[in-house]
What we know:
The chain is mostly beta strands.
Amino acid sequence: MKTLHAVLHLSLLLSTLSAQQVDEPVSYSCTEGYQFNVEEQECKDINECETLPDACKGRMSCINHYGGYFCLPQNAQIIISNGGEQPAATTRPPPPLFPSHHGNHQTTGHQARTSSVQCPVGFTADEFNFCRDVNECVPSSPCQHLCYNLPGSFMCQCEQGYELAPDQLSCHDVDECLLSSYLCQWQCVNQPSSYSCICPEGYQLQGTRMCQDINECETGPNCREDQVCWNYFGGYRCYPRNPCQEPYVQAGEGRCSCQSLSACRGFPPSIVYKYMSITSDRSVPADIFQIQATSVFPNMHNTFRIKAGNEEGQFFLRRSSNVSGMLVMTRPLIGPREHVLDLEMVTQNSALNYRSSSLLRLTIIVGPYAF
């Protein structure tokens, strides 16, 4: 009996060994980006963000996903869609995605392993039980303007002149006029995806942002025949061609002379009319006008002063030489306004007991703007 039992035991052992040797060995191979886990007997995703040294360049964030990884800027907006739920936006990279159960392995031999796949949000299982990225941008784009598909998510961007709304999906116009007060010289007008500059009356747009004065005296006859047109910054004015009043008579363009010494006693023998224009709020001090003697006589001494029109003390007449003086603006002038100054030059010789004067009536037109 013992011999028979031993023979039966040996026969069973040989049968078992023979059966093991007859079965073909089972081998496993995973798709790229996965490796087979012997303990759990399934393909596991490789976290390239941990295994690859310096996977992303330029301080970009590395984001692992099934079968690979991608790099995004540090401040990238990531939108994760979860079916019909409202997409959630985050500025931090999402955590690496790992499945709880994954069957992405292939078998060779007589036996095949099959298992269901649980894909994370933004992925769906294909016919081979692989988790494939869902392209949220097609067929209908969730973004108002531009949609960019990302592994497991998507990102919206806006066209030039627009920016993303808080929902990270829609776009609203950027009001460029609020970004800077230096876009336009005068006034900025916001437009969809852009802006434009406009100029006040009396000016025309030069280029895209600067305003240039319109010379109305050149564009057409705006004054009567007996008047002269004078253009200033932002407008024009008409002045008499003959400004002379009794007892003066016109002796040339803008020049009045007194022909009777008895009638002009106490008055300057001549008056010269001049006009000039300046911009509003000009920086001071500023030299704005020079008065100069037209005739020079030997041994004569000339002095200059503002005889009238400077009651508010906004000007100063500086003697620059024996024959010239410089009008200096000492305080900023705000327009539109007109200032009329009488600038007097007194010529005298003490030895000859000679004294004479001449008057220059200067009209200063201050424009309404600083340009």
